[in-house]
Amino acid sequence: MTITTYAAAWFLPFVVPVCLYVMYTDLSRMKITNTANLTLAGIFVLIGLIALPFEEYLWRLAGLVIVLFVGIVLNAAGVMGAGDSKFIAAAAPFVAPADLAQLTFVFVAALLAAVVTHKLVKLTRLRALAPHWTSWEQGKKFPMGLALGPTLMIYLALGFLYGA
């Protein structure tokens, strides 16, 4: 992995609570809040100055803007939700560009696990633990925060364990 262990160690403890909150709000309300997305971006703005060389920090901030623009276009086309696209943009600067292949594998695994888990819980008595969650009644819509949050957490954890 290209992300440094140093950067992952700085980012991980601040990012985990936000990702857990995103998972919860998307499951319970089918909403990834602007507060969560702004908090995630703010963490990068502050901690990125410590964790990354300044030139790389600036390039990754530029990546946030580019990914946000692409997300807005995809949202306008009805491909993804606004909260999902904003979360992806806020998460983008945490990822070393050279790690996109690894990130893709992590995302696919997290998405498969999230879909299977959500469907299984929805069909079992476990659903009674949170009977009023909006995500249970959404038909084909899926709370992507359940996959996006773990993707960022797992990526950073792997970076901490196996980073440069």
Automatic annotation (TrEMBL):
Domain (Prepilin type IV endopeptidase peptidase): give its ranges: 15-116
Q: Which domain of life is it from?
A: Bacteria
Can you tell me where the transmembrane regions are?
7-24, 36-54, 61-80, 100-121, 142-162
Q: Which GO terms describe its cellular component?
A: membrane
| One example GO MF annotation | aspartic-type endopeptidase activity
Keyword entries, A-Z: Membrane, Transmembrane, Transmembrane helix
Record has Membrane as a keyword: yes
Record keyword Transmembrane present: yes
InterPro entries attached to this UniProt entry: Prepilin_IV_endopep_pep
Q: What is this protein called?
A: Prepilin peptidase CpaA
Q: What organism, scientifically named, is this protein from?
A: Sulfitobacter guttiformis
